[in-house]
Amino acid sequence: MTSEAADTAELLDRAREALERYLEVHVDDDGALTFSHAGVPAVIQATQLAEGLTVLSLTCVVAWDLPDQPGVAASAAERAGQGLFGTLGVTHTDRGLDLTLRYAFPAQGLEVAALGTLLMLVVSTASQLRGELVPTQG
Questions:
Q1: Does this model's pTM top 0.90?
Q2: In terms of domain of life, where is this protein from (predicted)?
């Protein structure tokens, strides 16, 4: 195993350990971590950008097929910005709007508890945003 592969595998292992304090986590064949929180599916991947700089990338799928009405994307972006963690992605499709919340950060050296807190801040923002945008089924 190369040094890069070992670094990314170690970081993903710590992220898995951190998240398992809160959620059920699945490890995919490629090492990516997948999980769901309050109806929001998410994935974490690790990449070494440069020697000594390995980052975690968290992508949460907030909502899909939302009505493509004026103001929905702007309102969602404003709300996501209040969370301070993550960048909202808006994709216009034939079926409406798809929204993702992404956050990438250098994570080497973070303790498991701190890493879990940081990841859950992002995931919680995505879940709160989903709760505001997607009507619950009753």
A1: no
A2: Bacteria
